[in-house]
């Protein structure tokens, strides 16, 4: 990652949060216009990335200024993973009450207490290993989140070790749809209402095959009782958006496959609505996943 200039260092080091069993670092960004009872978005960077770098590329802190959103950036330490990847495939880091998920849960509790955050408006998003860890957080702590957005990620518990993880990333094997659904249900004692799910993936991703995006959708379809084809398909900024609505008409799952895009987070840096900066894994494709995810969660109104 290029070193960030002073003007870009927007995040504040979070000194203390719980027992931190996953030995993670944490940064926050609380905009000046953050209202009492405002929302929180937890943002998980990808492999080889830092919290600062992901914030700069995705533009989340710029949107936070615009809309009054608190941000929490859990960050992996190289001592845990040499590539700075979240360990989403390790059994000690993919279960409730343990490891990295518990560290992230403790960070959230601390931020909620410190900044008067509305506990009913907490969301989580991440890319690559951060996307896979987003799947972990949504499954292990579903009562915490109103919604989650998984970018270039993998389904919860689709792999249980590094070798399986490498194979799943290439789009091979993996649990059946029934098993994927069961893994989420067994990850906690929660019984709903479940977090909404937003899935983003590059159509030409050769690092994490986009078969994983479809698997994530199927993992959550039965839970949301929206099995089968999408309720509707629309076009947004030139890309197809598939939407599944529940019996009450609420949009509970959406999926974007960005044709021609490789491995990374889709951004649109230019124009009035532009956010972020292009970088390795922060890909300028003319659609801002950050802005559209926030819209899906009702944070831009």
Automatic annotation (TrEMBL):
The answer to whether the entry has keyword Membrane is no
Q: Where is this region: Disordered?
A: 1-22
Q: Does the keyword Hydrolase apply?
A: yes
Q: Output the superkingdom of the source species.
A: Bacteria
One Pfam family of this chain: Esterase_PHB
InterPro entries hit by this protein: AB_hydrolase_fold, Esterase_phb, Plant_Biomass_Hydrol_Est
Keywords of this protein's UniProt record, alphabetized? Hydrolase, Signal
**The organism of origin for this protein:** Vreelandella neptunia
Name of the protein described by the UniProt record: PHB depolymerase family esterase
